[in-house]
Design a protein that fits this description.
This protein folds into 2 domains: about 240 residues, Glycerol uptake facilitator protein (Up-down Bundle); about 40 residues. Helices cover about 75% and strands about 0% of the residues. The radius of gyration is 25 Å and the shape is elongated. The N and C termini lie far apart (about 75 Å). The N terminus is likely disordered. It comes from Dendrobium thyrsiflorum (Pinecone-like raceme dendrobium). Its main location: membrane. This is Aquaporin.
């Protein structure tokens, strides 16, 4: 067992040194996306059977996103969304060489989940998995684009500010993001399908061979994610170098403050001694 662990460490180190993608990240992005989509999209089939309501579907999405963050966040960042992956790379938070592997893993994870659900619930029309404008009077394309971009913006900015900002309370970051997903699914689920994720729409579209209005659910999340990431890392979240400089300045100020305190204490001590002599 020790030899296996040693081999695994050496193999992973060799991959990093040669510039290839660490296998752990590929596995966790693929598995994380699969698990989120299997539970989230699967809840739609359970709702169709009358076992749960929209609240239950929304809770399923929010809960599995939260679990995924705590399961794989420390390994691969819990990436499940190509729009967020692309946006983070655009603002310099993710190496571009990792983007194609992340995106491919996210799409494949969703596709595998969609195909499995289609087989498991063969008695229900698989097109239930698609993200499309809903209701007797479906929203126009423009309204869907605006709403999808907006909810993706909320999702992305919550993820960045709660999980990446060094000043944030990291322990509750996963809960905060899950709560945002729950509320978004509850509000937008019956209007646009609340995709927020190109992979979420692409996987079911391939599984059902139905690409109706897919372009909307690819472009809109990209707009929202890029806007949120740009706002966060260009304005809201301080630059890493600024944080380091500030920490260094605080350290110097602390040393200077300690020196002054020692000098004052010595001066007070000398004054006490002089008073005793007198």
């Amino acid at each position: 067992m020790a030899n296996y662990v040693k081999f695994s460490c050496n193999f992973n180190q060799e991959i990093k040194e040669n510039g290839f993608f660490p296998i752990q990240k590929v596995v966790t992005v693929l598995l994380g996306t699969f698990s989120v989509m299997f539970i989230g999209i699967g809840s739609l089939f359970v709702e169709k059977k009358g076992e749960i309501t929209l609240t239950g579907v929304s809770l399923a999405w929010g809960a599995i996103v939260t679990v995924n963050i705590y399961m794989f966040g420390h390994i691969s960042g819990a990436h499940i969304n190509p729009a967020c992956t692309f946006a983070l790379a655009l603002v310099g938070q993710l190496p571009w060489k990792q983007v194609p592997v992340y995106v491919l893993s996210e799409v494949l994870g969703t596709l595998f989940a969609s195909l499995l659900l289609k087989w498991l619930f063969s008695d229900i029309n698989a097109e239930l998995m698609l993200t499309l404008p809903m209701g007797p009077n479906p929203a126009s394309n423009l309204k869907v684009i605006v709403l999808e971009a907006l909810i993706t913006f909320f999702y992305t900015i919550a993820s960045c500010c709660c999980r990446i900002d060094p000043r944030a309370t990291k322990d509750l970051g996963g809960v905060a993001v899950g709560a945002v997903v729950f509320v978004i699914a509850l509000i937008a689920g019956r209007v646009t399908g609340a995709s927020m994720n190109p992979a979420r729409s692409i996987g079911p579209a391939i599984a059902t061979n139905n690409y109706t209005k897919l372009w909307i659910y690819v472009i809109s999340p990209l707009i929202g994610a890029i806007a949120a990431a740009s706002l966060c890392f260009l304005y809201l979240i301080p630059n890493k170098n600024i944080i380091k400089n500030k920490q260094a300045t605080n350290h110097v100020n602390q040393i200077y403050s300690d020196d002054i305190e020692h000098e004052n204490a010595d001066a007070a001590h000398r004054q006490e001694k002089s008073m005793e002599i007198m």
